[in-house]
Amino acid sequence: DGGITQSPKYLFRKEGQNVTLSCEQNLNHDAMYWYRQDPGQGLRLIYYSQIVNDFQKGDIAEGYSVSREKKESFPLTVTSAQKNPTAFYLCASTGQGAPEQYFGPGTRLTVT
Amino acid sequence: AQSVTQLDSQVPVFEEAPVELRCNYSSSVSVYLFWYVQYPNQGLQLLLKYLSGSTLVKGINGFEAEFNKSQTSFHLRKPSVHISDTAEYFCAVSTTGGSNYKLTFGKGTLLTVNP
Questions:
Q1: What does the angle CA B51 – CA B56 – CA B58 come to, to the nearest 5 degrees?
Q2: Amino acid A40: pLDDT
Q3: Residue B86's closest CA among B4, B2, B14, B7?
Q4: Separation of alpha carbons A21 and A76, rounded Å
Q5: How big is the A-B interface in CB pairs under 8 Å?
Q6: How many C-beta neighbours within 10 Å does residue A95 have?
Q7: DSSP count for chain B of H helices, then E strands
Q8: Averages of pLDDT over each 10 residues, chain B, 115 residues
Q9: Which of A44, A50, A104 sits opposite B100 (nearest CB)?
Q10: How far is B21 from B18, CA to CA, in rounded Å?
Q11: Across the strands, what pairs with B76?
Q12: Which of A69, A72, A107, B99 has minimal Cβ neighbours within 10 Å of its Cβ?
């Protein structure tokens, strides 16, 4: 089955630690996206990548970093510089010429 | 830049009643429009999309939406809801130009279907 996987489902970290969230897709999609979701805020774009080895900042990139070394993988690192990292993180992808995004199941990060 | 406004943050309805979730958007260029559904602690699932053509779009689970360009709206409707439709619904817009399909989301509408 083709789809997007995110792991782990739940992640707990202590304040001051960096943490990396995994996103993998086997849909052969070119573009991948990371969103942050907070209650009542909708989804906000953190980073996106349209091609391997290239990515752009979204609306709330501060405190986050990404890499795109392989077409199928787009990991997100939440750094200690992110002031309020506790949130639900969603990864998505789109195929070439198709504007609809397909989403993974999400990772809920809790930082204490 | 575009923006999306979902006019109701919460919509409670009784089972088998009709429902309309309202969405208005703002954009200076042509747009694509989407509705997504999210069940608790899950990712978003595409309900339906408007890309071009007929302004009445049918989606999964019996939902439909109508694109109204003059009113810049894309309201979601279902004639008879079920308990299982309880979820959060997101309206989203992207521009049609180029190959960058960044989505702008509304803040969501929580639909609660009561027995």
A1: 85
A2: 82
A3: B14
A4: 5
A5: 61
A6: 15
A7: 0, 12
A8: 93 98 92 95 95 93 95 97 97 78 91 97
A9: A50
A10: 10
A11: B21, B65
A12: A69
Cα–Cα nearest to B25, from B58, B67, B56 = B67
> Is the Cβ of A101 closer than 8 Å to some Cβ of chain B?
yes
Close Cβ partners of A82 (under 8 Å, ≥ 6 residues apart): A62, A63, A64
Q: Say how far apart CA B112 and CA A78 lie, in whole Å.
A: 33
pLDDT at A37: 96
Q: How far is CA A104 from the centre of its chain?
A: 9
pLDDT at B100: 67
Which residues between 12 and 71 in chain B have a beta carbon less than 8 angstroms from any beta carbon of chain A? 32, 34, 36, 41-46, 49, 51
Predicted local confidence at residue A60, as pLDDT = 95
Return d(Cα A38, Cα A69) in angstroms, integer. 28
Assign residue B84 a region (left: φ > 0; alpha: ψ between -120 and 50; beta: otherwise): alpha
- Regions of chain A where pLDDT drops below 50: none
- Please check whether residue A59 is in contact with residue A42, taking contact to mean a CB–CB distance below 8 angstroms: no
Q: Record the tokens describing residue A18, joined without a space.
A: 């960096």
DSSP B78-106: ESS--GGG-EEEEEEEEESSSS----EE-
Give the β-pairing of B56-58 and B44-50.
Answer: unpaired
3-class DSSP state of A54: strand
Cβ-defined contact of B32 to A105 (cutoff 8 Å): no
Q: Which residue has the tokens 């409707």?
A: B77
